[in-house]
Amino acid sequence: MDKLLVIDDETDVRYAFKRLFDMPDLEMRMASSGEEGLSLLKEFQPNVVIMDIRMNGMSGLQTLEAIRQFDTRTPVILMTAYGATQTAIEAMKLGAYDYVLKPFDIPKLQKLIFQALKASRDMTKPVSFENDTASLDDELGIIGRSEPMQEVFKLIGQVASSDATVLITGESGTGKELVARAIYQHSPRSEHSFLAINCAAIPESLLESELFGHEKGSFTGATQTRVGKFEQSHHGTLFLDEIGDMSLPTQTKMLRVLQSGTFERLGSNKPVEVDVRVIAATNQPLEKAVASKQFREDLFYRLNVVRIELPPLRERGKDIPLLVHYFLRKFSRIYKQPEKSIHQDALLALQGYRWPGNVRELENVMQRAFVVSKGDIILGSDLPSEVTGPAAQSSTRLGKENLQREASRDTAIAPGESGVDPSSNPASDDIDAMLKSLFHWARHHPELPLMPMVERELVRQALREVQGNQVKAARLLGMTRATLRKRIEKFDIRQEINVD
Ligand SMILES: Nc1ncnc2c1ncn2[C@@H]1O[C@H](COP(=O)(O)OP(=O)(O)OP(=O)(O)O)[C@@H](O)[C@H]1O
Ligand SMILES: [Mg+2]
After folding, report:
1. How far is the CA of 329 from the centre of ligand 1 (A)?
2. Using CA positions, which residue lies closest to atom 12 of ligand 1?
3. At 441, is the secondary structure helix, strand, or coil?
4. What residue numbers bound the domain in which 455 lies?
5. Which of the residues 82, 144, 213, 385 could staple to 228 if both were Cys, CB 3.0 to 4.6 A apart?
6. Do residues 52 and 6 share a domain?
7. Residue 8 belongs to domain with CATH number
8. Residue 305: CB partners within 8 Å, gap ≥ 6?
9. What SS3 class is residue 311?
């Protein structure tokens, strides 16, 4: 359960929060002054604090300073009146997570709070390395006994204590983000912040300002000065995910900040000095990008000081039974149901599959199997046909080279592109039921074009589901990224972008 503390002396604002964030898995408490907020903070231990800057008694800035005396991590978001950016910048320097302008842009506010809650989970949810995490309820495990994973654990242990830049590589779903968090949590910087930024999810034109900040008026749409993630992560750790998607000009600035610890906000020539540990990840082979001049060679070497390569799941079959049991335990906890076991044949099918989506795909398959299985043993029939079907069996006989080529494509293979006949994959009862109600609705709205509407909605919702990350949305939809881009254009879907 996430916990949010709202500190504001205006009753209306507290009321608005009560209504806006009334959700089952979020617990909220209200304080009407900085003093009250401080005393609640210790008792309630919120994951995120949102607080007004201007309050009677202790101001937001004073309260923030007091919070930071004993808690350097909990994300604190400040609310400020439009135009009062100077104070907002002051707040960022004091260690605020971000600020929002009043009156609120509600979707932006919600997005920010969800981001902050995620950042808080990243910082606090422990990541352990052991194989048996049954006793630890709220812990994320990196499971693996295979040799390549043992190597990974060793490296994590070795690099965690230093400030060395780490480059984590591996196919999609192999656990790169998990490893980044483990390094952070085992590092001396774990008392400070860990912020993650996904370079593929932010349009190229905005990434530079997201990282380095900008001065008011430095480009169209820059209506307020903004402090970037580097400044925000002072003394902390910054995780740059999908770094292969960074444009060349931004790479140049990156190189400089890694070399000298300084940079300038966009539209300013005043250097800002920061002390930030960078962990980067990519699922694209960066060496290739270097060869084709899409990625700076000097930056590549600067990032590649320590390289942690996560092996694809199909190369560590030994870990599959461990992971399967780990996920089954996890879902029995989540769904509050007795533990289930797995039939030998089903386990063999899982071990024979080539897992293009790696551990994430295995996790999804196990979740589905847990839910659909009738008894307390997971059977082969509870697994999706791509795992057990003839296509799965023949694909395990494909040459290794072939597999690697297919798996390194940036999207999953869509039906019809992979040679898998979509008609052999009958819709589940759930989908059947959904379609029935959709047709029912369409009969009552003959004026609306069903296909394009559904298609547009699918694309929109998929993007929302993955916070705008096109690579992930394409994978979710089972289409290539190029096809997704065409759909975005065709339906004029504008992604929500945080400019200020
Ligand atoms: N070794 C592991 N043990 C347990 N869970 C794992 C392991 N590796 C990955 N996972 C789980 O699989 C999912 C995907 O992991 P993660 O997000 O770290 O992958 P990723 O490499 O960053 O993927 P992408 O390239 O798609 O961003 C997460 O839910 C994570 O908890
Ligand atoms: Mg990732």
Report:
1. 17
2. 360
3. helix
4. 429-490
5. 213
6. yes
7. 3.40.50.2300
8. 164, 165, 166, 167
9. coil
Query: Do 327 and 346 belong together in one domain?
Result: yes
CB of 162 within 8 A of CB of 155? Answer: no
455 CA distance to ligand 2 centroid (A)? 26
Q: Which residues line ion ligand 2, judged by CB < 5 Å?
A: 176-177
- Residue burial 27-55, b: 16+ Cβ < 10 Å; e: rest: ebbbbbbbbbbbebbeebebbbbbbbbbb
pLDDT at 10 over 60: yes
Tokens of 478: 């089972």
Residue 25 Cα distances to 12, 22, 128, 455, angstroms = 23, 9, 25, 30
pLDDT tens sequence across 364-417:
999 999 999 888 899 999 999 889 876 554 444 333 333 333 333 333 333 333
**Alpha-carbon gap, residue 166 to 110, rounded angstroms:** 32
Ligand of minimum distance to the alpha carbon of 283: 1
Q: How far apart are CA 106 and CA 19, in angstroms?
A: 12
* Residue 200, both tokens: 């593929």
335/285 same-domain check: no
Angle between helices 147-160 and 176-185 (to 10 degrees): 40
- What is the pTM assigned to this prediction? 0.66
Indicate the SS3 state at residue 177.
helix
CA angle 486/492/495 to nearest 5° reads 95
- Output DSSP code: residue 189: G
Q: Are residues 291 and 400 in the same domain?
A: no
pLDDT tens string 431-489: 766 777 677 677 766 666 778 778 888 998 888 888 888 888 898 898 888 888 888 88
Task: Report the atom number in ligand 1 closest to the C-alpha of 149.
Answer: 1
* Pocket lined around ligand 1, Cβ cut-off 6 Å: 140-144, 170, 172-178, 283, 323, 359-360, 363
Q: Angle at which helices 60-70 and 85-93 pack, to 10 degrees?
A: 10
pLDDT digits (tens, 9 = 90+) for 143-153: 888 888 888 88
Question: DSSP 3-state assignment of 451?
Answer: helix
State the Cα–Cα distance between residues 99 and 95, nearest whole angstrom. 11
User: 66, 98, 121: which is the final residue of a domain?
Assistant: 121
Q: Are residues 135 and 245 in the same domain?
A: yes
